[in-house]
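We modelled the chain as a single entity of 139 amino acids. Its sequence is:
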Amino acid sequence: MKTFQANDELIEILKNQGFFEVTSTGSKRKEERNFKTALSSRKEIQFSKIDIIIRNRHHDCDKRREITEAELKLMLFYFKLSSEDSKEFNPSGMFNFRVMEQQIGVLRKELELSKLFETRIFRQNKISRLLSIYDEITF
């Protein structure tokens, strides 16, 4: 499985996914680069020398030296979610690779059971929407 580090290859993937660089002059001096999907967004990816840090509201949520393709997909998914949808994965809306991965599995199982017993139609629709966003991510 391919891995990605905080380098030009990952920057190109982020730009293709709608991210743009918002690095300040002070951060450049500290060898940091910051990326967001919107200027007003509270979610941010920061490259701090060799670390890849996912941030929300200026708090570090999770970080890695390198990420796998599966982790990259989880990270991109998190940035596509609204703040309300993010709470499906963590009540505080913060990001964690392990929690996101576990919750994807939980949602798939919940959707399967809801369809089997034909219950909670509105919930089924929400889960289906979230999982289709996740499944459609390519890079």
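As a brief sanity check on the tokenised model: The helical segments are 8-16, 25-29, 69-80, 83-86, 97-117, 121-135. The two ends are 14 Å apart (CA to CA).
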